Amino acid sequence: MFLRFVAGTCFGKGFGIFFLSSYFVGFIDARAEDAIELAPVVVSATSTERQLRDAPATVTVITQEELQERPVQDLSDALRGTPGITINSIGLNRRGISIRGMSAEHTLILVDGKRVNAAGNAIAHADFDLNWVPVEAIERIEVVRGPMSSLYGSEALGGVVNVITRKATDVWKGSVSGTGGLQEGSGGDTYQTGAYVGGPLVPGRLGLSLYAEIRGRGETPDPNEPRLSELEERDAKTGSATLTWTPDEAQRIDLGFGYGTEERVRKIQTGGPAPTFYESTDDIERQHLSLSHRGEWEWGSTTLRAYRSMLDRENRRTQGAPSGPNKLTDDTIDGHVSAPVLDWNLITVGGEWRRERLEDPTVNLRGEAEAEHQALFLQDEIAISPDWSLLIGNRADHHEEFGWHHSPRAYLVHHLTDALTLKGGVGMGFKAPTLKQLSPEYEAVAAAGRFTIVGNPDLKPETNTMYELGLDYVGSGWSLRATLFQNDLEDLIQTRCVQSCGIRGAERRTYENVDEARIRGVELGGGVDLPGQLRLDANYTYLDTEDRATGEELAERPRHGLNAALSWFPTDAFMARLRSEYVGRQIVDSGPATETLPDYAIWSIDLSHQLTDAVTLRGGIHNLTDERLAEKSSSFTYAEPGRLFWVGLNYSF
User: From residue 269, how far is each of 220, 314, 323 by CA, in Å?
Assistant: First the structure.
């Protein structure tokens, strides 16, 4: 029978005993399961299962139901409205995920706790790591705000986004959905069809999970120059299969394979005194192969995994030489052992071996480079009393260029009452320079021929020390939370001109550890049930940033961010929601000076009606007021899709 494992801490009212428990569920009755409402459980903050209120970190959980209630084409859409998250520019009107004002490359993306290729480390303006998993296959998304290098190593400098996929049980379950959208004006129409099915091949022993999706978005022409693309055309196909074998009540073995292709088409203008227009196409191929074993034993639990992530990108152009090709391959073996000690703490010991390989004609003369990483980590979850818990941990990462790097973390959780929880801690994170940044032979033309960028083998890792303190209150029909945080960053990697500065085509730049910065702020949020079957949920983030070398504000970090949703539930079958996303003013670099961009707000309406127990009709309007950022300022480095009318149908069994 398929197993459901639970490994967590329970701080009872009696003796504050920590215990590890496991149980199995066989031949699950789907209707009985749906009727039981359990407290949210998260795994990303500790690698062991914890109730959300006990998690030693600031964590937000986005459920599958929430994702289905609005149009979601990729992970950036899925995270819109999440506290502390800014969807900002990474160039070419593509968007990245920024956590608490940190850069998008400081956000680590995981699928079921496993890394996916960080495409932005090797390909300029790449957001290809945001499209690995279709919405139909997602059970939930866990967002951890704050550095998590003590568990995950490099790249988790700002936080972690962990996509948890649906798993097979002893009952066949599935769903099929289709969504279409019409954007007002020229182009930008969307389509999306996805399916998931999972269940037993051999009852109690062998299960299968399958998902597939086809999605796309039409090109949105630039309103001022139709020969240019404001938003590129996208067409993607993704699928995956996972076999689950449970040889006995203590073990679970998963073998998974995922594959996807995507085409991006963009119309671009060349630089120089005589610019011309051309079309650039990126063909992207993704593969993910994994084998994992999980055991729940009388003495504790074990996890061992081996997986490979591959991403190929080919570029073709109607004019000029294409860039690339690029091929990224990450091979990883990791595992950990968790066991209770003295009945009051849970010790977790683990390790990781990872090899990253890049094939790219610009990285060096051979056109390929690789690096190996080894890591060991130790974590102790301590039950001090029924209402106090402490997590302490450290991860030691070895990089062949820098030697050992330590990422310690300590976090305290105190339940003042059954409703009020105090959390706070300190943690360190780091990000190693990329293979291109470190290569002395790396040389590439950038910014449409404006300058040439070269590598620097003397770079050091970027580091971040984070402090946070928060309160969380959950009452009857209402909740309120507040968190103070500060990030102290050192050795940030930036480009600097070293030759022929300001001379187009002759200017040369390199990477240097030149910057120190401080990002501090506050997150507020909560929700309340209102009369008339209404509910209001909102969150607000304030950022105060400083470049400590210049004393100036950091660019492209909105000082204020506000998300609000007013929901109406007149019947059990119908829901209507008005959403608002406010982005405050921000500065951008504009040549030698900076420019302040105006604030803006995106309003949307979501509607949902359950036609039968199995069929749900959804629809709505995204960007209700048709907010166009280019009309506010030509210096915005990204665009918002125009007013989009969408409708979708979901069938579940």
Answer: 15, 20, 15
